[in-house]
Please model this.
Amino acid sequence: MYHKYNMNSCYLFQKGFFVKQLFISLVTALLLVSQAQAIDGDVKSRKEPTAAQKAQREKMKTCNQEARAKELKGDERKAFMSSCLSKSGEGVVGKSGKADKVAGREKAEQCKQEAKEQKLKGDERKAFLSTCLEA
Model:
């Protein structure tokens, strides 16, 4: 007696079909597992911030909150942030340039103002400014 469906002619029961499907499934599973391991490895390999970086983040957070509270914008905010970040003698960690220049300008302006208040002229003024800027 013959069955209604001939198993030999059905493509599902052909030997090549199962091998191909099995191979594709295994390759897909291996790719997914390797991707998951790579992502997990990236997360574990990230470095923990140093103490100096953590301190700098806290300082930036505090200065930003103060600037927000004072509602500073534009150049005023930049100048405030520069002076706020350099209060403890450190600039922005790993950066120099604009912040240092702005802080230097502010220091020079303060020294010039003090020299003007003391009504210093000539060599006395130069000597005062040089000692003031070195401090």
Notes: Confidence is low (pLDDT under 50) at residues 89-95. Residues 103-135 form one domain.
